[in-house]
Task: structure prediction
Amino acid sequence: MGRRKKGEDVSGWVVLDKPGDMTSTQAVSSVRRIFNANKAGHSGTLDPLASGVLPIALGEATKTVPYLMEAEKEYIFTVRWGVSTETQDREGKPTGQSDVRPSPKQVDEALKGFLGEIAQMPPQFSAVKVEGERAYDLARAGETVELEARTVVLHEAEIAEAESLDLLSIRVRCGKGFYIRALVRDLAAKLGAEGHVWRLRRTAVGPFRESGSVTLDELQLLGQKGAASERLKPVETALADIPALAINGEDAFKLRQGRPIVLLPHVMETLKPKFRDRIIAGQDASRAALALFQGKAVALGDVRAGQFKPTRVFHLAD
Result:
């Protein structure tokens, strides 16, 4: 006999408003329990101290996680001037102090130098792997590790609020792999000051916004009423920027068997302008498209030579 699956076949996205002082892994486990789902994952770690948008994939939605990992993110965070810490946040031990308190105007001007594509050194306390070990594990063991700068993108940065001389809030929109703690570290250095992240909140991940999120408490209450599915978004929600292709029942049947389908010339002409350069999980996905039957995801695939070849097939209940 085959092994019995643990949990139910629940598929979709939950846009969780993760509370602070909870790890992303703990958040995924909590959501998975509420839905009794047999499979769950998230689209990118959010620091334990941070709150905000953590999209959690259940069931077949886990197949779309690599696409959401590439999505833009938005944050609002507060810098506390005067003290730098080893972790670049309020949990770390102080490593430097200063009486310098940059003005909002000075910070605004300095932020301009970080816009666009930049080389950013990840924090010592980060999830970057060094010879198979997480950098934060090595840092906690007292080791100083050699990390390599990474190319990241900062699309927008603006002052949100100047709470006091010590506290300044900033709103940013950035690309994959961008570290807010590293930005604060480098911003403080540029201004001749000391500072660290005092508060951090993620307000958007790709198409998932703060306004459409649900707290864990709200989700638990819905779960007790058997209504948690009210906050479950369709699998294809994470693929909002992937060109969509409407197909018929016959083609849907072929794709579910892993077979390619032929696209008519006018369909190819409609899709071509929608393609753009993109790398997903290290692979060229510039010709990626999403096949939909009656508005529901059937398969992700690659469009070439007049054919749609499935790379990910979704098995969703009718």
Remarks:
- The mean pLDDT is 91.
- The chain is about 20% helix and 35% strand.
- The chain has three domains: 12-70+208-237, 73-205, 242-313.
